[in-house]
Amino acid sequence: MTLPDRYIAGVPCWIDTTQPDPSAAAEFYAGLFGWELADSMPPDSPGSYFTARLNGGEVGAVSSLPPGAPPVATWNTYVWVDSADETAEKVRTAGGAVLAEPFDIFDAGRMAVFADPEGAVFGVWQPREHRGATVVNEPGSLNFNNLNTRDVEQAKAFYGAVFGWETLDIGTGEMWALPAYGDFLEARTPGMRANMAEMGAPEGFESVVASIVPIPDDQPDTPAHWGVTFAVADADETAARAVELGGSVVVAPFDAPWVRTTVIADPQGATFTASKFAPENKDLAMDASAVRGA
Asked: In sequence order, which residues have a C-beta less than 8 Å from that of residue 155 and are 6 or more positions away?
């Protein structure tokens, strides 16, 4: 039986982390999140691509650095598109840069890598056999993709032109929304909108596809970038476990609207957010001094 897709064009659908030592990174994330990882590249390949599975479904991957890339570990976001080639033209027209022209990944799909006008790097995925992450929003899996930016207005113009994204004010800030996605999710899971409203979620939240994190003025050296947030069962325990495994805590666990969250760096320096859903925190005011987006 073929399962229905979780995504439509314009929705982030996959993440991976590029690492100088992918085997060591795979060991770290296996210990932290309970992932099962297997190298999906042929034995004679010059690099590795460890696909991560959790509870029987794919959650992301750990990859070698591309040839010639600087030895910097990062987490990468990929957005589902109908055509990587057409998206490349939209990126150019909107003032972004094409860092890697569209190319095929075997029979899995077609991808490209871009940068927005502020330099935040992201990928797109035109799916064929690989249909994106199948486990999300569960402890140990992706919960949110986050654009960290200094120029929100410029980002609105760019991502609106490329993906049709709009912004939704949820009271504690703005988030990226794609109205068609809310309709898609409601059709996939009837009653989803009513359930979210009953929980007290902001109106329109079902259409959210990513978050916007303004980079604070006291971080002049932080570049614009895309980051990732993982759902966890306990933010404090996750932070402690990361340190045991050789990582570090960039921002200690703290309470924020709807969540208890922390920012962690893995042993090779890739940062990410780990967040426990905490509906009891829904009415908390956001402490801007605590926010350090990963």
From this structure: 116, 118, 147, 149, 212
Kind of pairing between the strands at 225-231 and 271-277: parallel
Contact between residue 91 and residue 83 where contact means Cβ atoms under 8 Å apart: no
Tell me: do 266 and 152 sit in the same domain.
yes
Contact indicator for 158, 182 with CB cutoff of 8 Å: no
Question: pLDDT per residue over 179-228, tens digit each?
Answer: 999 899 888 889 988 888 888 788 888 899 999 999 988 888 899 999 99
Query: Are both 103 and 35 inside the same structural domain?
Result: yes
**Total domains present in the chain:** 2
Which residue has tokens 């992450």? 133
Domain of 207? 142-290
Residue 252 confidence (pLDDT) above 90: yes
Give the tens place of pLDDT for each residue, 17-54: 999 999 999 999 999 999 999 999 888 888 899 999 99
The structure tokens 């949820």 sit at: 170
Residue 103, in any domain of the structure: yes
Q: Residue 242 to residues 35, 58, 59, 247, 264: CA-CA distances in angstroms?
A: 14, 22, 19, 5, 7
**Residue 3's pLDDT band (boundaries 50, 70, 90)?**
low
Helix (H) or strand (E) holding 184: helix 179-188
Q: Please classify residue 175 by burial: count the beta carbons closer than 10 Å to its beta carbon, then call 0-12 exposed, 13-18 middle and 19+ buried.
A: buried
- CATH number of the domain enclosing 36: 3.10.180.10
Strand pairing partners for 80?
Answer: 125
